[in-house]
Amino acid sequence: MLTKINNPRLMLTSVAASLLLLGCTATPVATDGVKSLAQLETVDSNTVNIKPDPSLPPLPIEKTGKIEVLPAKYPESWMFVDEVSFQSQFGGKMIILDVAEPKQSKLIKGTADKNLVGNFANSKTRPEFYILESFHERGSRGPRIDLLVIYDKVTLSPIKEIVLTHTRLTALPRRDSMTLSADEKFLYIANFSPAASFTVFDLDSREVVDTIGTPGCVLPFPTGERSITSICSNGSLLTTVLDNNGKKASQHRVAPFFDTDKTPIFERPSYIDGIGYFPSFAGEMHEIDLSNEVAQYKGKWSLISEEERTAGWRPGGMTLSDSDEQGLLYIIMNEAGFDGSQTHGGNQIWVFDVKSRTRIAKFDAPNWAVSVAVTRGKKPLVVVTNGEMNLDIIDPITGKFIRTLSDFGNVTPIVLFKAY
Amino acid sequence: MKFLDQLFEKKARSLAQTSGRRGLLKGLGAALVGASSIPLLPVARASEGPSMPKEFGDEGSCDYWRYCAVDGFLCACCGGSTNSCPPGTEMSPITWIGTCTNPVDGRNYVISYNDCCGKTQCNSCLCQRDEGDRPLYRSDKSNDVNWCLGASSSVYHCSTAIVVGIAFEK
Question: To the nearest whole angstrom, how far is the Cα of B156 from the nearest Cα of chain A?
Fold first, then answer.
């Protein structure tokens, strides 16, 4: 056999392929030949004996160099997992995962690197997504470069890399560190140096338009058609209105509505029909209308009853809430909460109809809940980052635990994004 | 009172951010030299002031009193200590603060959690306490931020817990 291979590279390929085959578990997969099926003798459910049959025709020769691509529109059950890799931050990445896929080997659809606690944003209408990451020239040493990388959703290859100034927010990942305008013409990039600002990036021209200061106010929550609202250190909001070119037209203050020391709120909202839902540490839900040119505070209501408050129930988690396409809000609740437990997670998921401001369901997190996310579609799945940093899949209709996803390159998958 | 508290915290924070560690050591050294040059007087030992404040506990343990608002790898487990960085790293000059109670003297202290930077993550003694931690809009009290943004390398290694002042209330 070996004497027939004249090209040494081909020989190595062949040997490697043989070794790989030896390492794989033999499974009784149906083939075209009835005869080959007859050779399989099942010993037990895990072991199959194969009798070699040299009279069979050889396998067709395959081409090397084949690279998979993804569909232009991702299925509803796919999600982007932000793997910040807290213990090895050179290994951060986005993992595209089908959380409804029953076969372990088919869970991962692809990955994109995201170095040094990078930031991520996803597009609903453009065939691309965005990663902002940093590199030092020699690992942890040398000059630093910050790059906005525009990725092709189909090939998962970079389309363009844009060098930015060294002011990007480097913090534990969140859904709002980079956001898009309603028409997805502009990308808004949070800066924190620690001076707060945001950068406007034109996704058509692929150029930075401007960086706009928001003193004392952080994060770019998209508002109306061309506005950005930031949350401020005195409990107020600041809305920046842009002109059609992405330049600052005006800025507007929304009066303080909470005390950042005594009644703090989470800066990680969920969105339903243009309203941003910002839970407080103690269990109130603040509504901010982000559908018009300037943000408007709409008041607050309680997630918990007086009895539950007395018992110690509080919201909490790294990414503590998400919404589905039916307008329901899912939030992690901790029955033993306190000031200090706000990012620790909780033991239940509560589901709210925000229109009626009522809780319609609650279910246990099977293995604790640090973060929660919900897939797209009419029959969504709830995905919970559990205490062991694996993902628990739950049917929100029945509240039943379906399965745990692990061994998909996960270390600290603390934020999940819907995929489009 | 609250105003004074906040002012004090800001001053302590400002001091922590603007004073170099070498400057602090130099000052402390001068004070010690000055003290040693004062002649010992024949006074009763009993009339001496109280002894220096003490601390109790394992600085390598997450429940150590100084770590009340920490979120990260403890430098005390990484070749450093509560107030020093491991060899070859760089201390970020800007950071977040917490207010922790020392159980030995019952006082509240302002703790500055300066990050040590420039080497890959220490990966020992991960500790998340978060008492008094606030979201990003209160960046002075936010431990979600990679505070190595103030160092020459943005690579986070571990977190210290340095006493930078006395707080009047928690």
Answer: 9
Q: Six-digit token pair at A81?
A: 């997992």
Domain ranges of chain A: 2-50, 78-418
Tens digit of pLDDT for each residue in A210-268?
999 999 999 999 999 999 999 999 999 999 999 999 999 999 999 999 999 999 999 99
Residue-range domains of chain B with CATH: 2-19+64-167 (2.60.30.10)
Q: Which residues pair with B115 in a beta bridge?
A: B159
State how far the Cα of A161 lies from the Cα of A110, in Å rounded to an integer.
20
Nearest by CB to A260, from B131, B138, B149: name it: B138
Cα angle: A78, vertex A80, A85; to 5 degrees: 140
- Say if CB B105 and CB B54 are below 8 A apart: yes
- ipTM value: 0.87
Residues of B in contact with A334 (CB under 8 A): none
Beta bridge partners of A150: A130, A160
Contact in structure between B164 and B15 (CB atoms under 8 Å): yes
* Helix (H) / strand (E) containing A308: helix A306-311
Q: Does B70 touch chain A (CB under 8 A)?
A: no
pLDDT in tens, B106-153: 999 999 999 999 999 999 999 999 999 999 999 999 999 999 999 999
The A-side interface with B (CB below 8 A) comprises 86-90, 116-117, 134, 136, 139-141, 144, 169-172, 192-194, 196, 217-219, 231-233, 260-261, 264-268, 339-344
Through-space distance between the first and last CA atoms of chain A, rounded to whole angstroms: 49
CB contact under 8 A, A339 and B131: yes
Strands A400-405 and A391-395: antiparallel
The pLDDT value given to residue A42: 60
Q: Which residues of B are designated catalytic?
A: 96, 115
- CATH homologous superfamily, domain A78-418: YVTN repeat-like/Quinoprotein amine dehydrogenase (2.130.10.10)
Mean pLDDT score across all residues of chain A: 91
